[in-house]
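COURSE: Structural Biology Practicum
ASSIGNMENT: Worksheet 4, Part C
STUDENT ID: 0417
INSTRUCTIONS: Below are two proteins. For each, the amino acid sequence is given first, followed by its structure token string. Answer the questions at the end about the second protein only.

PROTEIN I
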Amino acid sequence: MRIQASALYFALLAATLIALLLSSFLLLSKTQRIFQIKNLSILNSLEAVTQGLDMALSGTNYDAYSYNDRSVKIKQDAWGGFFLFEAQDTTDSFGLQKQALTGGIFKEPTSIVLKDNFLPLVVAGEARIEGTALLPERGVESAAIAGKYYLGEKLIFGNYRNVSSINFPRLDPKWLSKTDSLITTIPESGISLSTEIKKTFSGSVSHVFSTDPLWIDQNIGGQVIIQSSSTVNITKQANLSDALIIAPKVIIEDGVTARLHVMATDSILVGNQVDLKYPSSLVLIDKSGEEMTGNVSFIGEAKFGGNIIYYNSESNDEILNTNIGTNENTTIIGSIYANGAVELLGQLQGTLICYYTVANQNSQKYRNYIFNGRIITENLPRKIAGLPLENNPQTIAKWLY
């Protein structure tokens, strides 16, 4: 009897173990199946949002589209001197999103595009222009300023042709509209300026606004806007990464190292020993009308990577104020755009697009002169993201998270 009970006990134990093993196997199979479905959905979602960004960069104007039964929304905004693209898969809970800063690219390395204002481009001193140049019909000449004659063996170290062979590049109207909206919109609510503000580019923006001047010495990064209706001073204690600064006047003090974006309406001043890393941007939307008094000024040794833009909707050819001015110790890798005048004293490794160049020497203004400034196209990454120009293909400046 005792033997039969023991046998029954072991039989029940064996049955229980088998049942547990079977249920574990079924649970494992179901879990693996769920993971397979989830992984497949994530891979399909990644492919869909990547395809969405590729289509947006190629110039396809979609707000939403379907790809392999995945529904993707495309959003395009301005963020400093770049576009901010977002592709979001809204199909299900497995849907992904990708964000990127983008800028335009030229088909060929272009050093300078100068509006045909019935004057030649004049090079003097140690000026040097490399690469393809698009110039006024009167071409390029050499001259002297304060007894300093042009020292180059050639006027242009590359090819040049009449700028009238193309339409003068225009900033993208959508970028201008979204930039104006960012500058003029006062947030209904926001957050306080604290020691550290970090925000990913997925979701809504974190916005700090003040009617008083602001001094920035905090750790701020991501999708954060710091805005003042007066002045923003950025100190060398600040640690800024991808943040957007908006104010009539922005002062970047000596010793600042950052990657940031600035939008101003009156002036942007860049101090000495400043290093603004790519992709950064300085945007001056001049609200002074035909007086064209707005300016971006580099006053000392500085390094800058990205886009510098001056724009005035009432640009006046009769006015010759310096709207973008660099120091002889300024090095810029990227692009400069101005529908006004640019004084280039340092080195630009990239592209200059402007209505006029100007040299301010001996209390005189020399229209369409470049004195000692250098525009170099060698060793520039071919697909570096440049200006937000109309009808220009886009490329990625930086993936955002």
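PROTEIN II
(use this one for the questions)
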Amino acid sequence: MNSQNKDGVSEALDEAVAAEAPRPGQTDHGRNTAMGIALMAGAMLIIPSSDAIAKYLSGAHSAAFLSWARYVAALGFLLPIVAVAQWRSPEPLIAREQLLPQIIRTAFLVGAMTLYFMAIKHVPLADALGAYFVAPIIATLLATVILRERLDWRRLAAVGLGFAGALLVVRPGAETSSGTLIALASGALMACYLVMTRATAKASSPLSTLTLQLTLGIAMLTPFVIFQWSMPDREGIMLILLMGLVSAASNLMTISAFRFAQVSTLSPLVYLELVGATALGLAVFGDFPAPATWAGIAVIVIAGLIVVAPRRKPRAP
């Protein structure tokens, strides 16, 4: 790795650290945080539909193919928007010094999603989610070390409550299968992706970041897909297009969210994905949640309220 590439990574981290420091007169900080929370919450609520499609198609296609197909479909929806944006403002999508950090960030995401698709092929979606949800905890801890974010009691409590709620919802079995271990590894890589997304969020626009992410993801997965190619039928193509649309929207919202709020603020909101998964199961498959599931959702909501609740200002002496 040459010095220029090292500088690109270190500059991205330094800029993220500087962004965490309070600035005098920053009156719109609360508004920005609220925007970040809203974007992240929306993204987490729509992601389960993409996961459900991937699980449905996993019987006929490999995890690598599904990840690749989702990126291709998402990029197809995004390219017309990028073309219009570039026509209006013909500038490079990504600065040269930001290329390596974006490659590392995308590699974390590609690895996380591919491993997750492998996991849900072998274990129930709920069990996979329960293991995958180590991501917010790891991301919050990494952010305190790498980005020097403050880990106050509110954020730590939100992460802990969110994880407890997730366990109530998924109630993973006592036996640890290989699929569960794969989902754990997926969650660890996703945590690294969340931290890198925050580190690079303000270096380029969300549209540019997502375009490069999808392009790099396709390039990384193509060598594996060549040897695992499977042609989807008409229904499969329609579902892949829908999966790509949801993926493009949720990723754009997630990347945008990290421009406004810290990792430790947004990480607990990842647990909202369980709420979306429960609602989808009830609406589409008629799976009425058990009492423990409702209790878990209530705990997750409380965790989210802890994050979004306004802080009390110290009284002037």
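ANSWER KEY EXCERPT:
Q1: DSSP finds 13 helices and no strands in the chain.
Q2: Residues 32-308 form one domain.
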